[in-house]
Every structure is written in C-alpha cells, then in structure tokens.
C-alpha cells in the first residue's frame, strides 16, 4: 500500500523547513519528507546542508527533524550506536515528498 501525505501536513512541515533555512548559516536544499519502519508513526524531514566556506573543500551533511503524523515537530534522535544500525535506518528511509528549496511548496499549485 502506498503511503500518502495530506497536502496540509506537507505545508506544515515545509513551513518548518523554511524556518530551518533562515537559521541555516549554510546552503540548505533537497528537502524530503520520509518514513522508516524503524520510526513507526513518525515523519522524517531530511535536508542537505552545504558549507562552502572553503570552496576547495565543501562540506555536505544530511540533517533530520522528526514530526508526528499531523506534521507537529517532535523531539527525536537519528544517532545510532554503530554504523550497521545507522545504515539500516538510512536504507529503510522512503521518500514520499521532495522539493529542492524550502519555499518551493509556496510556488506549486498541486501541493
């Protein structure tokens, strides 16, 4: 069965992403709303930060935030005890919504 996220919930989560972008301090992009069987009942927002302070060696990292099924932020940790457990989580993530920049959902009519 395909998982579907209500457009109001997408807007709620992506409005939170806009706040994250304002305080980012680096370049933030590739926002994805995801789920994982390892986090039942949780929507995971993943985005990429790119620090180009040193153009010869840019640093790229994934960041995560958790939300309940209604799009309300909740505290969670995506840190794991070892690489095997972390890889299991990363491989279990399934993308249900994606946009490049945090404000794109305000420009699209279908969301």
UniProtKB/TrEMBL annotation:
This one is known as: Uncharacterized protein
Protein's organism: Fulvivirga marina
């Amino acid at each position: 069965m395909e998982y579907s996220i209500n457009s109001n919930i997408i807007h709620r989560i992506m409005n939170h992403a806009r706040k994250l972008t304002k305080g980012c301090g680096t370049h933030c992009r590739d926002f994805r709303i995801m789920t994982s069987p390892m986090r039942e009942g949780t929507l995971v927002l993943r985005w990429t930060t790119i620090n180009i302070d040193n153009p010869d060696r840019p640093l790229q990292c994934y960041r995560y935030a958790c939300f309940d099924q209604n799009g309300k932020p909740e505290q969670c940790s995506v840190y794991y005890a070892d690489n095997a457990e972390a890889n299991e989580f990363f491989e279990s993530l399934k993308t249900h919504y994606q946009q490049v920049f945090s404000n794109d959902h305000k420009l699209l009519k279908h969301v």
